[in-house]
Amino acid sequence: MMPDLGSYAQYVLSSYAVSLVLIVVLVAMSMHRARKVKAELEAIEARVKRQSGERATRNG
Amino acid sequence: MIALLTRDMRLAVRAGGGFGLGLAFFLIVVVMVPFGVGPETALLSRIAPGVLWIGALLACLLSLDRIFALDWEDGSLDLLATAPLPMEAIAVVKALAHWLTSALPLVLAAPALGVLLNLPPAGYLWLILSLAVGTPALSVIGTFGAALTVGLKRGGLLLSLLVLPLYVPTLIFGAEVARRGAEGLAVATPLAMLAGISAGAVALLPFASAAVLRINLR
Amino acid sequence: MIALLTRDMRLAVRAGGGFGLGLAFFLIVVVMVPFGVGPETALLSRIAPGVLWIGALLACLLSLDRIFALDWEDGSLDLLATAPLPMEAIAVVKALAHWLTSALPLVLAAPALGVLLNLPPAGYLWLILSLAVGTPALSVIGTFGAALTVGLKRGGLLLSLLVLPLYVPTLIFGAEVARRGAEGLAVATPLAMLAGISAGAVALLPFASAAVLRINLR
Amino acid sequence: MDLTVRNLAVARGGIPVLAGVQFTVSPGRALVLRGPNGSGKTTLLRTVAGLQPPFEGSVTGAEDRIAYAAHADGIKSMLSVTENLSFWARVFGTGEIAPALAAFDLDALRDRLAGNLSAGQKRRLGLARLMVTGRPVWVLDEPTVSLDAASVALFAEAVRAHLAQGGSALMATHIDLGLTEAEPFDVTPFRARPQLSHADEAFL
Amino acid sequence: MDLTVRNLAVARGGIPVLAGVQFTVSPGRALVLRGPNGSGKTTLLRTVAGLQPPFEGSVTGAEDRIAYAAHADGIKSMLSVTENLSFWARVFGTGEIAPALAAFDLDALRDRLAGNLSAGQKRRLGLARLMVTGRPVWVLDEPTVSLDAASVALFAEAVRAHLAQGGSALMATHIDLGLTEAEPFDVTPFRARPQLSHADEAFL
Amino acid sequence: MSFWEYANPVKFIRTTDRLLPWLSVTAVLCLAVGLIWGFFFTPDDFRQGSTVKIIYLHVPSALMAINAWLMMLVASIIWIVRRHHVSALAARAAAPVGAMMTVIALATGAIWGQPMWGTWWVWDPRLTSFLILFLFYLGYIALWSAIEDDDTAADLTSILCLVGSVFALLSRYAVLFWNQGLHQGASLSLDKEENVHDVFYFPLLVSIAGFVLLFIALVFLRTQTEIRARRARALQARERLA
Ligand code: HEM
Ligand SMILES: Nc1ncnc2c1ncn2[C@@H]1O[C@H](COP(=O)(O)OP(=O)(O)OP(=O)(O)O)[C@@H](O)[C@H]1O
Ligand SMILES: Nc1ncnc2c1ncn2[C@@H]1O[C@H](COP(=O)(O)OP(=O)(O)OP(=O)(O)O)[C@@H](O)[C@H]1O
Ligand SMILES: [Mg+2]
Ligand SMILES: [Mg+2]
């Protein structure tokens, strides 16, 4: 399965490892923050909707 | 405009930020180099032009944050903005004051420090010339950076981070002139490039600085 | 004391003066050197340990002025002086906060920058070790300098002037360790000296800083 | 020429704090803004002085006619009192600083470094600057902070003289200035209804 | 324990500005310094707070008992209101910031960055700091600058509560604080006669 | 319907929400195919041996590092000229992605340099320009994060981006003048005689496509995040005001 990388194996493998790790980290960070912010926003939106609903019933 | 220039120069002298300090910093950086890299004369004289340029650049850099920050903190900048002076003029005068108080002394002192690093004799003329041509660019670029970071509390380090990459072309051509000069090679091309960069920066960047100042003040 | 430390770290991070910027400055100084002295690998790798030490020292230096100046300007320092904290504790905490936010990141990043300057492989360990041992001295000496110049408007440049000579012994031994390490020579003596300087500075200078602060506040 | 503010809304940190403000200050008149802390007086004055753009509405008659004095009064502590003043006099192209020094009783302090003044003396210097600008509209934010009674009287006198010469003044203050001819203007009724900046609204 | 000032002379820039000052502030009492601009109130307060040495005379009962508040109130604009307050609470080893927030009506502003407060709000935060120090003697330099009438009343209330708990206060101000129980103390009669510092006299 | 409709944040979120799954799936697919093909099923180069496999990471990331900056430049200009908030936020979102691409290019290049040139780093013009580009990214990100007010930050960073681009170009020429280096020329251009051999070429193209798609997907995602964060701030502000 593994191709014969010869004496350069460590270089090829490490560059693949480094790049993939960096990409995965960036993607993970982006997705994590995206989820967090989305959840926060939804919480706020729900609260705002509830409050404006309350205000409407109180006033109306 | 002249009023602003005189005031800035006077303040630089009074507040002890004037001619002396930048110079002293330059001196110290240059003196540190042999401590850091070891005392061999041949090695030092090879790196001398570069070290002198880098030292001058760092000394310039360190005095950038006072260009606008002090005026911002005590409210003078707001008052200047409502004064009958175009923002561009303010940017130009500030850059000029910086050049006169911080950069010009470096240019004049560089040869003396060249001696400390065994700069080859052929190098002195070109060192001074390259610094004289290059430092105006350093001042206007620095003013732009200072305008960008005005109002950020202690933007000093951020300022360096923003400004240093912008300094790269000036440094490369400037040091190249000095180095080639010291080695007795032809310097016409890099000198022309250096002059071009300087002229371009002086002509255009004040507008960018003024725009950025306006944004920061609002 | 812990309250002060946490506050200072938090401020360093918030005000954008934290870990990142000193590091970025270090990186940039190191990158500038080849532009100044030319790209030959052999030359660069010879001056690498010295350049790295000088770069780390300058990056430390640039963040010194925020140690006390901000607290002075907004009156916090007066208030801290009347608080139930000995002035010595304040000096120690300030130095520690400076070391954590400014110096430690430099130590950790130095090897990566060593690559850029082709530092010989044998040098990495000694570079890190010498920086780790030496930077505490830089922080306490710097705190002393910052205490000396607190209250002088924009004492930044003056501060550099006062502090740099005090940094010389640390620099000499530190760079010597790194250089000998890179060349594969024995490093025991300079390392011991460096450790001695560091230990002495950390043990004694806070008292000097506290005394100086008391004088400056009155 | 009148300073006219029409349907002005002003914002701080992107959020409007006052809206629908309307007033006119004619030559020879003074308007004193009143309102509790945080009601938006500083923000309003900065907008009128052109230091920040209006959120809505317009300010006319302000262009290049305003001398602004705020909490921070732009005094350089390393310059003497006369040097501070004559700098501003030169920037605004007027020559004479002697009347300003006299009006704020600064003659005895002429050569003192501004950094060595007491809080009230510093403020007097900041106010003296207004007189050397030669500008007709004074926009002042809490001008009498730190001033003792005698200095407040000097200030009132200076404003009165300025108004008599056809100038006008717009100021915010919490304490009584002893300026009987000034009309009060309470900003409290103009508190902006909860509203976001236009930029923020794009995100709703 | 009383705060006692005996035959005190204070100097600024090496030159004495006040001399022969005598007063005692007992627990439960407040003293309000009055005097024209430049008469030396700030200098006197700094000396009492131990920030500068007396020129002559002595201050007793001040050691580690003083909470000082000056023109600059040591507020970090990059920290929120609660962060600012709880920092000082921790430094002084007292835990509770809630009463201080309540007393100066800062609850609504808890999480606002201090840099985004209006001038008066900032000052309220500076004053709230006094309450978290737990110190018995408050030394205040023009505490009500920029405060509106309502906030001045809050401040007076806070001082009154502090006095009722056996604390004491020493403050300088130009305006009326509405603190009926405070004794006024005019510093004008104590203006120092022209005199050199002892150090200078050594050269005569 | 004009293109500028997408400058409306809501519209942008809605559209990208629909696109994102497809984009990310194809991105992952392309990356996987390109890299696996490149790693497992290409022969070694006769000069570079197996190290040639690094090309599938190095070249795409290097390309994207530059293109990300160009994208930020365009977005900045759009913000300055037309003041569409989404473009400012997109520029902000792209910066860390671009910086990461630069780091990947630098890292893979450095690792490649060790066997090929016997050193991790030489001050070759191409490499040096990349390092400078990285510094520009750092400055840009630092400035963004240092300013609180969103619009001010957008204004300042776009001007920095404009000025920075000019100076980045200047640096490129300066660096070329300063040192003629070792690095490979651009051999990807189709009209050149000496081109990379087909066996290497096709997986490389797939991998490049993967990086491009990944970049777009990430920028979309991050822009969405910025928009949402901004919207959350706006709602909170409105709540506080109410
Ligand atoms: C840190 C170091 C390096 C950096 C920053 C770097 C940067 C770049 C860049 C920007 C490109 C894209 C050029 C273009 O298509 O216009 C590129 C392509 C390339 N690089 Fe590097 N490089 C580095 C090290 C190396 C090393 C050590 C090698 C191998 C000896 C190498 C081999 C290549 C090859 C073969 C290409 C493809 C050239 C082409 O066909 O376009 N690079 N590199
Ligand atoms: N970023 C922000 N978000 C929300 N509100 C803010 C922000 N920055 C400032 N504010 C509020 O804007 C209001 C306007 O402040 P301004 O300084 O104009 O008040 P002022 O009338 O001058 O008060 P003072 O009398 O205390 O000086 C204040 O209530 C302040 O808290
Ligand atoms: N270097 C100096 N030489 C001479 N006099 C000085 C010097 N520095 C300050 N002074 C004077 O010392 C006096 C004391 O100032 P201080 O700040 O204590 O006054 P204050 O009573 O607090 O006034 P204010 O009500 O204006 O705040 C002032 O008259 C000031 O001008
Ligand atoms: Mg106000
Ligand atoms: Mg005072």
Describe the structure.
The complex is a heterohexamer, with 1 copy of chain A (60 residues), 2 copies of chain B (218 residues), 2 copies of chain D (204 residues) and 1 copy of chain F (242 residues). Chain A is mostly helical and 60 residues long. Chain A has one helix spanning 9-59. The N and C termini of chain A lie far apart (73 Å). Helix content of chain B is 83%, strand content 0%. Chain B has helices at residues 2-14, 19-37, 41-62, 69-73, 76-81, 87-116, 123-149, 156-183, 188-217. The two termini of chain B are 22 Å apart. The relative contact order of chain B is 0.15. Chain D is of the alpha/beta class and 204 residues long. Chain D contains 6 helices and 8 strands, in the order βββαββαααβαββα. In chain D, the strands form 2 sheets. Chain D has a 5-stranded parallel sheet with strand order 5-6-7-3-8, sandwiched between helices. A 3-stranded antiparallel sheet of chain D has the order 2-1-4, covered by helices on one side. In chain D, helix 2 packs parallel to helix 4 (119-133) and helix 4 runs parallel beside helix 5. Chain F has one domain (8-183, 195-241): Four Helix Bundle (Hemerythrin (Met), subunit A) (Up-down Bundle). Helices cover 78% and strands 0% of the residues of chain F. Chain F has helices at 9-41, 55-82, 85-117, 125-146, 150-178, 198-241. In chain F, helix 3 (85-117) runs antiparallel to helix 4. Chain F starts with 8 loop residues before the first helix and ends with a helix. The model of chain F is unreliable at 189-194 (pLDDT under 50). Chains in contact: A-F, B-C, B-D, B-F, C-E, C-F, D-E, D-F. Residues 41-42, 141 of chain E line the site of one magnesium ion (MG).
Envelope shape of chain A: rod-shaped
Q: Give the helix tally of chain A.
A: 1
Question: What is the overall shape of chain B?
Answer: elongated
Strand content of chain A: under 5%
Order of helices and strands of chain A: H
Tally of DSSP β-strands of chain B? 0
N-to-C CA distance of chain B? 22 Å
Radius of gyration of chain A: 25 Å
Low-confidence stretches of chain A: none
Largest sheet of chain B: none
Overall average pLDDT of chain A: 82
Share of residues in helices of chain B? over 70%
Give the largest interface pair and sizes.
Answer: B-C, 49 and 49 residues
Mean pLDDT over the full residue set of chain B: 87
Number of domains of chain B: 1
Based on helices, strands and strand pairing, what is the structural class of chain B? mainly alpha
Count the DSSP helices of chain B: 9
